Amino acid sequence: xxTVIIIVGILAAIAAxxxxxxxxFAPVNIQEKEIGPFDFVMESHVGAYKxxxxxxxxxxxxxxxxxxxxxxxxxxxYDDPKVTAEDKTRSIIGRIIEDADRxxxxxxxxxxxxxxxxxxxxxxxxxxxxxLPSIVIGIYRVYPKIARYMKTHEIPQIPVIxxxxxxxxxxxxxxxxxxxxxxxDDLMNKVGPQG
Length: 195
Description:
This protein is an alpha+beta fold. The chain is built from five helices and eight strands, in the order H-E-E-H-E-E-H-E-E-H-E-E-H. It has helices at 2-22, 52-65, 105-108, 132-152, 181-191; strands at residues 31-35, 38-46, 73-77, 90-96, 113-117, 120-128, 160-165, 170-176. The chain has an eight-stranded antiparallel sheet with strand order 1-6-8-7-3-4-2-5, sandwiched between helices. The radius of gyration is 19 Å and the shape is globular. The chain starts with a helix and ends with a helix.
């Protein structure tokens, strides 16, 4: 019996260590600060949010093939998957255009749709990004805190933006507090229908 307890204890410690690596115990601090602007190559996606990762990676490869370097991905998530059917959830996915390539925005726009997140005030949460488990943990740890904060501070419901910075092993959840739903609707209209 002692052996079973020891083995269970060791397995629990290993599981806790692995989950800790991916962010299970990372602090979730919401800061309000001014950031931006961010230009980003974008396309729309309708369907399960879990499917956007490979699309963001493919976009990076396509841009790299065109000589445009990007190290950060972005996802703007419009619908609550608890309320909207998975196959109907809408998002805009993309790659942030690096500062070195900002002068090429007009050239990039000849082939790709480009959007901008303006310089403004955002709620910002920094979270570990060490793979898919970090994203899943973030969904359960970060989103409820952001929702409570927005409700407490009477911030209207708008899409949450996720920025993925794998080189820094960080993910940022950002919510612009001075933009309204019309901004996001206009962005979706600009990018056009999926595909």
